[in-house]
Write a structure and sequence with these properties.
It is a single chain. The protein has 4 domains: about 1-100, GIY-YIG endonuclease; about 260-380, Nucleotidyltransferase, domain 5, CATH 3.30.420; about 385-580, Nucleotidyltransferase, domain 5; about 595-640, DNA polymerase, domain 1 (Orthogonal Bundle), CATH 1.10.150. It is built from 22 helices and 21 strands. Strands 14, 15, 16, 17, 18, 19, 20 and 21 form an 8-stranded mixed sheet that branches. A 6-stranded mixed sheet has the order 5-11-10-9-12-13. It starts with a strand and ends with a helix.
């Protein structure tokens, strides 16, 4: 890591040590958090442009430069390798000054677990990392559409829905009800070979890709063959499947009678957010539309499309032979090379100017426009309002800028044996669920919310510089009143972090913000907020607009809504972990209800098998092999779970 010096001559000398080769650079702030990840064909030349006296950069990058305290560089063999490494580092660190694409979580995907020996088909609300292992995601879909699609899939393809680890658990349980009613071919009982099951899964993928013609012809052929051999029951079942697929095919919009596979990408902006719509065309039919969003930080459309192309196309099966775009992506040749290498065959990026392909592009642009409008309406307030709300929250907490990363903590307990805490993270006012953490209370016995809160915050702050916990928080919120804030304040002040509390009313609803001074800003009525603004020594002309009734009400309700979301999420996450702990404890101690099993034998069983679940799944011979467990007790345990 290179720390930026204050002397320009020394700084110029340090830049000379940066290699003049392709690679990736990471800009960091004073705390070591990654601000920005970029790539360059020449690291030395690129870094020199950042630290020139008057760098020619946009407002976003200028703001980032002012916060740089150090940087790292990673040398790569070529620009394409740097292009791929940059994407992986952005995904890992999620720096605040990079363009970060977000899926529309309101629309679910159909997830096919192709990395498993016996894949399953299920609903998913985000694309997971298992896509790198071979899993496929289709969609996103409208809620009603995905229900109909899964219903058709279940009627045509009798795949498993259970969570059994096959083939490891094959033959350990009886087939479920789905197998008895013909909705599953019972691979758990070995009633279908792995090859035949995989062939059926491949047909599911063809169905979800919109390639239904071959399936329709095969079902029609099998239906006629069953009829010819007078197997009318089988023919009736096949006819139902054939009709369902035919109806689904007729609903797909034909946009190219000559067939062909292509994706169509269009971008739409509203000044504070951008939307990219991707129409998927397979065999000449529109089979799906994907929406992705990002904050509008300025810059050209091609910059966002380049980021989308690199992040979205992660496996060969996702990349079509042709991609139509509303604007050419930055570094078109490099992006094309990346996609060709990913697909293993030729890929062409075009920007049509006329004809049917231009009409397809206009259809994608209309979808992007409508998606952005729908997103703004569904959120209740636009990002500009959210930014003002965060700025007001930061002002209450005594920080100069709005809190980009907020960490909120809550304690949940159910008796002395089940005590846990939660840390939830809100990034730019939105939950960042991948950064959530659970804590088990270990430092003392009994129930004391203040000590428990101090323990979990102390454990988190002790790992403040660990990347596994994410960036340094700009604000710590605790669920509770003055006592809770007082418990967290000394720990936070030691690290220079502001703290505030979220207090509830008698009906357990969020009502205000507790400041470190002990003052409570009531948000359910306008008076407290108005008084705070009036007493603020930094009040200026900007506050005059805030004191106008409508604007004041909007700010108050915006802050109340944000705090309610954060407090509810922290409570929900803490309660979920507490319930899991209680369930696990109940399962462990339920062993002592079995005749012959007391605390000592329960401990021996758990030490041998690890978990209660594995005890319940163990065979009689495995139970008998446990040291200190008599044969009669082993039989009692086996019969208990078998029954």
């Amino acid at each position: 890591m290179t720390t930026l010096p204050t002397n320009n001559n020394i700084f110029d000398a340090q830049l000379e040590l940066v290699p003049d080769e392709p690679g990736v650079y990471l800009m960091r702030d004073k705390s070591g958090s990654v601000l920005y990840v970029g790539k360059a064909n020449s690291l030395r030349q690129r870094l020199a442009t950042y630290f020139a006296p008057n760098p020619d950069v946009d407002e976003r990058i200028a703001s980032m430069i002012s916060r740089i305290a150090s940087y790292d560089t990673i040398i790569c063999d070529n620009e394409l390798e740097a292009f791929i490494l940059e994407a992986n580092l952005i995904k890992k660190h999620r720096p605040r000054y990079n363009i970060l694409m977000r899926d529309d979580k309101e629309y679910p995907y159909i997830h096919v677990t192709l990395q498993e020996d016996y894949p399953r088909v299920m609903r998913a609300f985000r694309v997971g990392d298992d896509i790198e292992e071979g899993a496929r995601y289709f969609g996103p879909w409208l809620s009603g559409d995905i229900n109909r699609a899964l219903q058709v899939l279940g009627s045509i393809f009798p795949l498993r829905h259970c969570k059994l680890d096959l083939p490891r658990e094959m033959g350990k349980r009886r087939p479920c009800l789905n197998a008895h009613i013909g909705r599953c071919l019972a691979p758990c009982a070995g009633k279908i070979s792995k090859e035949d099951y995989r062939q059926m899964v491949d047909e599911v993928c063809l169905f979800l890709e919109g390639r239904t013609d071959d399936l329709i012809r095969r079902l029609h052929r099998d239906m006629l063959a069953a009829s010819d051999r007078l197997d009318f029951e089988e023919a009736t079942v096949l006819r139902g499947k054939w009709q369902a697929l035919t109806r689904l095919r007729e609903q797909q919009r034909v946009v190219d009678v000559s067939g062909g596979d292509r994706d169509v990408l269009a971008i739409h902006r509203n000044g504070y957010e951008i939307a990219i719509a991707k129409l998927e065309v397979r065999d000449g039919r529109v089979t799906g539309c994907v929406h992705t969003f990002a904050e509008d930080c300025g810059g050209a459309d091609g910059t966002y499309l380049s980021t989308f192309l690199r992040e979205h196309y992660r496996t060969a099966s996702q990349v079509p032979p042709e991609i139509l775009v509303s604007a050419f992506p930055d570094e078109l040749e490099l992006v094309t090379r990346f996609l060709r290498e990913k697909r293993g065959r030729a890929v062409t990026i075009r920007r049509p100017q006329r004809g049917s392909k231009k009409a397809l592009l206009e259809l994608a642009m209309m979808n992007a426009d409508r998606a952005l409008v729908r997103r703004s309406l569904s959120r209740g307030s636009d990002p500009q309002m959210l930014e003002r709300t965060l700025a007001l929250l930061g002002r209450f907490a005594g920080i100069e800028r709005f809190p980009f990363r907020i960490e909120a903590y809550d304690i949940s307990h159910h008796g002395k044996g089940a005590r846990s805490g939660s840390m939830v993270v809100f990034r730019q006012g939105k939950p960042e669920r991948a950064s959530y953490r659970h804590f088990s209370i270990k430092g003392f016995e009994g129930i004391d919310d203040y000590r428990a809160l101090a323990e979990i915050i102390g454990r988190r702050l002790a790992r403040l510089n660990e990347e596994s916990f994410g960036n340094r928080p700009d604000l710590i919120l605790v669920d509770g009143g003055v006592g809770h804030v007082s418990a967290a304040l000394p720990l936070a002040e030691r690290h220079g972090l502001p703290v505030a509390g979220m207090v509830k009313d008698d009906r357990h609803r969020t009502r205000g913000l507790v400041l470190p001074s002990g003052k409570v800003v009531e948000l359910t009525t306008a008076g407290s907020l108005r008084d705070f603004l009036a007493d603020d020594e930094q009040g200026d002309k900007e506050d005059d607009s805030l004191r106008e009734s409508e604007d004041l009400r909007a700010m108050r309700l915006g802050l109340l809504h944000l705090l309610t979301s954060i407090q509810d999420e922290a409570h929900r996450f803490a309660l979920r972990h507490n319930r899991r702990v209680r369930k696990k404890q109940a399962m462990r101690y339920a062993l002592e209800t079995i005749p012959g099993v007391g605390p000592a034998r329960r401990k021996r069983l758990l030490e041998h098998f690890g978990t209660s679940k594995k005890i319940s799944e163990a065979s009689l011979d495995e139970l008998k092999s446990v040291t200190g467990i008599p044969y009669t007790v082993a039989e009692a345990v086996y019969n208990h779970f078998k029954e």
